[in-house]
Batch of 2 targets.
Target 1
Amino acid sequence: AELALAAIGFLYHVEAHCRKRGRSAAERLALRRRVSRPVYEALLDWAEYEQKNNLSSGAIGKALKYAKDQLPRLRPCFEDGRLEVDNNLIENSIRPLALGRKNYLFAGSHEGARRAAMLYSFFASCQRLEVNPRAWLREILDRIADHPINRLDELLPHHWVEAPATASTEEE
């Protein structure tokens, strides 16, 4: 197991190196193919060998089966440098939703829950786009009543550009 943990740690180290140095997708792909893929292939071989030779049906056997089943899903990362090696970005973005799950039971109605989900989506978009959500919402609420209904998409966070005066006076 120490070998597998070291290999996985190495793969993450390469990814951290790419992020820290601001590598492009093409550069990250080249580094993955040159440095990470041999470690990944060795990890695949190790998982297959260990599963065949481990007769345990307990926790170790289950972990080996899981590793052998899941590791092939990493293969697309060695074909496209834009892909991440894990789903941490998604997991971190849905964590607040999972933590507040019981609170959402009390949205009042199905329509209330739908509206809350829309707001969460808007705020997640703001966060991802580095848009101040409070400033965005304040401006959108001021503009929406007079905005043409067939052009509401113009008010979405990815179309909104924060005015410099608003940006300097707003606190998140």
Note: The chain has a mean pLDDT of 85.
Target 2
Amino acid sequence: MLLGIEQKVRDSLGCADLPEPIALPRVESVPGTFFSAFQQLWSAQYRQRTMMIWSVWFFALLGFYGLTSWLSALLQQSGFAVTQSVYYTVIISLGGIPGFLMAAWLVERWGRKPVCVVTLLGGGVMAFLYGQSAVFGGNVGLLITSGLLMQFFLFGMWAVLYTYTPELYPTSARATGSGFASAIGRVGSLLGPLVTGLVFPITGQGGVFALGALCFAVAALVVWVFGMETKGKTLEELTEI
């Protein structure tokens, strides 16, 4: 079969023999180190991406854990019984399942950047509405609906972040870049519940959820202004941007 293909090529070129294949120079793979990968994160080419994604992870997780860690307790403070608070929290958390799946589908249709912005803004708006409905406590239907939508958008945010973050870096720094972004996010996740505990006695529950919504809005603004689209781009194309 191969001889037949070669003969067709010779006939099309009108020559008796095919040119000799060109031997490409062998490139030795140089294993990267942690320090070289970390330096690459802060090189001129990747510095803005690093600052952008670290800010997004920090503010997103600050808002997420600041709200979800206190969700049941905040409902109890609004006058709901312990059993009701736990039940509503469990029901509300189910909204995250379709949110995660929907975002995983949308990132391949719309792109990483727009889905990230939409999930963060949607989570912020729903967090604010949830806080207001919990404060006034009269409409349980509104409380559960806004809570379900809040978790829908926030778990969608997770799907986007885990897709978007590694695509910002080359292979040699991808694990380090993703790991540090997640670590910065964990700092936010530790501070979130602490900040909520400090803010709640001063502003009440409405202020807590407004603060969470503000965190998501800041993260969305950072992505919108400084983020880049990675959908459908090769490593070479992303390196040239």
Note: The chain has one domain: 65-240.
